[in-house]
From TrEMBL:
This is Tyrosinase copper-binding domain-containing protein. Residues 304-315 form the Tyrosinase copper-binding domain. It holds the Pfam family Tyrosinase. PANTHER family: SHKT DOMAIN-CONTAINING PROTEIN (PTHR11474:SF76), TYROSINASE FAMILY MEMBER (PTHR11474). Belongs to the tyrosinase family. SUPFAM superfamilies: Di-copper centre-containing domain. Keywords: Copper, Disulfide bond, Metal-binding, Oxidoreductase, Thioether bond. Gene3D superfamilies: Di-copper center containing domain from catechol oxidase. It comes from Vitis rotundifolia (Muscadine grape).
Amino acid sequence: MSCNSANGDPNSDSTSCIRETMPRSTFLLSNFPREVRLEEGASWHRRAVWCRWQPRATEPLVFRAPIQAPDVTKCGVATVPAGIIDFQLPSPDSLLRIRPAAQLVIKEYRAKYKKAIQLMKALPDDDPRSFRQQASVRCAYCNGVDDQVAFPDLEIQVHASWLFFPFHRLYAYFHERILAELINEPTSASPYWSWDSPPGMQMPAIYVDSTSTLYDAKRNAKHLPPTVIDLDYDFTQSTSPNSEIVANNLSIVYRQVGSGATTAKLFFGSPYRAGDQPDPGEGTIDSVPATWSRHGKLYTAGRDPTFFGHHANVDRMWMLWKAIGGQNRTEFTDPDSLNAGFVRDCLDHLKLRYKYQDIPIPYSKSGVAKAAELPKTTISSSGGFPKPLNSVIRVEVPRPKKSRSKKEKEDEEEVLLIKEIELDGDDFVKFDAYINYEDYSVSKPSNSEFAGSFVNVPHKHKQRMKTKTSLRVSFPRARTYDITIGGIEIELVSN
């Protein structure tokens, strides 16, 4: 699987994912280089050891519908050794690798990481370890290239579902292992970009040296240091002072990991089973993605080295979310999640033998601004849907149950569901949701009434122009898109 440019320029942003008769890009749902053993003068794709995930014998798939790996036999001939071995977790006795915060790395580490990326970029394009092929993994699984097994008209899409976190955890993991092998340092770990902490809210210096292999000339220059990264970015440059942008960023992360992510469905996203349409519903982190730099297009994001630092931090959010504790802060136990090709083996990052350098977490005990005391205004009932989102929609939504016991509140979270959101998947779309808010003209993420955002990063679909999905939070700020809301209701959600 490879991303090819429409105009012949391999770095062009005008791209499409196409099938090629060449060695398959490293397969996250199926094949991954587990250990790469090189011999002098030997071609890697003849010497690599490949592995795959297989359903556990103790978990029969009868009457269940987990998403499975694409059928690689329909993707041309891949030059791999005879026999593919099943993936095995690293030995629990192996050294625990520490992923450092990118803004804190020392000179020696910078040199080694730059060298590893340089070696990866120097590999031939048909080598599955090459930088191009690794970037193409993102293109393949996020841009409507492969079909679901037994459903030839349904694409596989790892975004906006419970596959988002497991997929990207293993994507970053194997990218890291390839880099470590290239510099012959098995204990080496890749950096994470801590955009959730003020010292990391600028692009780290390790990525901005124009003479370095970590530099990408196609980044938006407006987002380079000293610009503060705006987690509420909607393709318009903020005019707010840096202090306000930082405060808004902290409020967004507080909701993404803390107050707005109290159940697995809220944090990870909606269930996605074999035969389902893609994009059933995004989780809190996926709903506010990195839309700066090249990350604003799914099919080019992996070509920027910052992408892997960003997704290492996304993976760290999973670790932090779980560390908060509570009976609902656990991964899905649904067999269709656990048996989705690769999920079961990546639920515990420590079993993959890595962890993150500790840094202060400024939002862990912080909240958001107090709700303003404003006069009540007239709002409509929850009927009359679907409605186009060409102006602010303000609606009163009935609660399914008003008086609930403490035990009921612990078992089920009250969640606002904005359902059947219909839009063109190739458009950038963003709207925000507020609860009990009167003055939307001064809305911002630091308001306590702000519940979350819906963001669609442009991506292609094989069969469909329109995408239908859902958002589990609240109500939008004014902005005009070609988008329709199918309904708004409150539901009770448990794991």
